[in-house]
Amino acid sequence: MAISMSSLTSSLASLSFSSQISQKPPSISFPQSKKPLLRSIAVAARRLAIVASAVAAPSPVDLETTNLKKYVKSRLPGGFAAQNIIGTGRRKCAIARVVLQEGTGKIIINYRDAKEYLQGNPLWIQYIKFPLATLGYESSYDVFVKAHGGGLSGQAQAISLGISRALLKVSESHRAPLRKEGLLTRDSRVVERKKVGLKKARKAPQYSKR
Known about the structure:
This protein is of the alpha+beta class and 210 residues long. The protein is 49% helix and 13% strand.
């Protein structure tokens, strides 16, 4: 009986010891630092300020376009259709309406300077200046253009035809020199359609005998 009592007390002691070990240690909480939070707020505020300034202040290109729009509207009261010296040119899919007015030789296409609109390409700029240069009017007329459709190359050639047709309304005597340079001929060439069984309009796949 004594042995059983001693074994019972030892087992009880081991149980109490294990229960003390199994208890979770008290959690220690440190006060969180406010520096990361303040830093994130400052970064967000800076980004918002940058976005607001970008939205509020228009770019120089937008300002220039707005100014040119006002300038064109002041020079063309009633719009393009109400003007007297007007010509329409076409090339491929491009269509250009051209208005001539006495001036200093400015060329404005879709409310943008011609050199900027045609990306400074010397060939395209030469296309639109050639009719005026043929008659010696480089600095005698301002040219206002509305162009759409096609690419810049097609639009430049359409503008050239439109300027030539508008110059005919200035004087019928301009017909002979413009006709001599081929500036009054509508270039009807367009891309030929693709054919069934061919890779392009005429390019065929490689022939295989076997």
